[in-house]
Amino acid sequence: MQATRWSFSSAAVLAITLAACTGSRLAVPPGPLSAFAFSAVATAWVPVAYGDAQVSVPSSFSVVYPGVNRVCAPVTPPGALYVAPTATIQESPGCPTEVHGTRVSVVPTRRVPPRYANGKPILVNGVTVYLGPRNQRESSYAYYAPSLGVEVTARGPLAHRVLGTLSRSPRARALAPGIAPAVPASWQSASFAGLRLSFPAGWPVERADTWNLCGPVQIAIGQGVTLDTDKKFLALPCPAPVASPVTPSNGVRVDSGGQSPTGSFSPGGGCLQSGGVTACPSSTPDYSVLLLSVRVPGRDEPVLLSIGLAGNGMVARTILYSLQEA
Questions:
Q1: CA dist 272 → 81, 195, 307 (Å)
Q2: What number of other Cβ atoms are within 10 A of residue 135's Cβ?
Q3: Per-residue pLDDT tens for 188-235?
Q4: Distance CA 195, CA 303 (A)
Q5: 107 domain-assigned
Q6: Which of 95, 220, 243, 314 is the S-S candidate for 21 at Cβ 3.0 to 4.6 Å?
Q7: Are residues 178 and 321 in the same domain?
Q8: Number of domains within the chain
Q9: How far, CA to CA in Å, does 295 sit from each of 8, 176, 279, 302?
């Protein structure tokens, strides 16, 4: 497949609910730090993505996603991360109101907040950020990253360290414009529903014909390839939402029956064309999973594709650029 240049436009960020998943660990916060040092990090840290932005928190943090009906946030250290919090997100009745630890919020914003108008830009992991009001005595800090469309605020013992992990998410790298990466010769390929894609050697390939929804967002996907015709609905109870951060993983899921694994698909801009197919990324962030609607010639319904966003996103980017008509 020849190298192809694709271009993308920025996608809107929407608040959506959480799907069930399982947790795991990452040894250290990913990526080099240009402004802060992590010499004292002793616990496992896990990256948590939201759209084009990503921060890392200890694996023992609690993570609260938009619209999640869940039990109390932690009342003891180390703390909690609130992803795209809104006024409608409240803790359960009877929960203590004070978090004894670090509280971090990642808030989507496309306009410069007034308090950053005279701020000086610095680089954090290659991202230009503006410093907001800070209170070192209370360990309170705030960053605004216009290129990522987020404001990140933190308060507590780990506030400075968490903000130092702010970086571009694997989704941003997977969808960045540029030359198509070459598919390694060791990779294998599969054809399904008129679509052909490549993926790393050794990934197991599973075929399925059932679908089941546990909420309109994915925050993780299992490693391997799932090819699903979506012919039958499988009514299974959904597990309770997991409060801990989930380590992203690589994997691919192809749904040919028009049943999105996250419910209704929200199309975004920046569709790409290559190999005779057209792929449009969802406007929703889906956290550590890239969701796309793929138009294949000869098919009335689009094929829905889910790609895991682990590491720096290069595996996902290579899979994405390998798409072609079978």
A1: 33, 15, 15
A2: 11
A3: 999 999 999 999 999 999 998 877 666 556 677 888 999 999 888 776
A4: 8
A5: yes
A6: 220
A7: yes
A8: 2
A9: 17, 20, 6, 5
